[in-house]
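CHAIN AND CONFORMATION:
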Amino acid sequence: MSLIAGGFPRRALAPAVLSALASPAFAGTPSDTIFVDGFDGAQPSISTYDDLTEGFLGTTLDYNDVAYHDVNGIGGVFPDGSTFTPADVGDQLIIEDSTDFYASFADWGSSPNTLTFGSAYIPGPNLSLGALVQVTMDLAVPASSASVDLGFYENGPWGGIELHLDALDGGTVVASDTLVLANGGGRDNVNVATFSVGAATFDQLRLYATYGDEPSAPRVIIDNLALTPASP
């Protein structure tokens, strides 16, 4: 049985959830794709994280002309009304071997590595999703479109949390995409989606989570950050 980990203590998955993760019905294309714009002809640069070494942990990461920084660092709330502090969720960028995840979502991202956040790291090909409150990505080359694959827990304690991807140019938001995590009750389960944003030009991305007007901290991994350069 694969080990499922996160930024906070978790119970073992119920047999029905383990069965669902192993089922072919959960493989294939993402179940939820948001605001998908095709790229405009320029070849995107794709960050797969697969050439990095599992076990990287750091508060910053410079990779493929993207500088990742300001991970979490703030407290917030969960849908059940409980709260968390910055120390509860951690502030690390983490390269994870997620081979077991790709066994269920073969057409998502690119095996084996993903990028996750917070404090969750367990070596090996297990499924490990860390806590994401926020992360900022500075682009060395201004872009006109971006997409990123997300894996996340929904339902259970996460239902109703909203994930956001903002594109900024000179500090001003020029495009956004959002996803409200499903709230079907019962145990949490893993799902996938793709965020996509496009504008004439932007030099920064911000991925973050909210519940109502407060920061929140769902469990998230990302892969295949694709950036299309802006026209000169």
About this structure: Residues 4-229 form a domain with the Jelly Rolls fold (CATH 2.60.120).
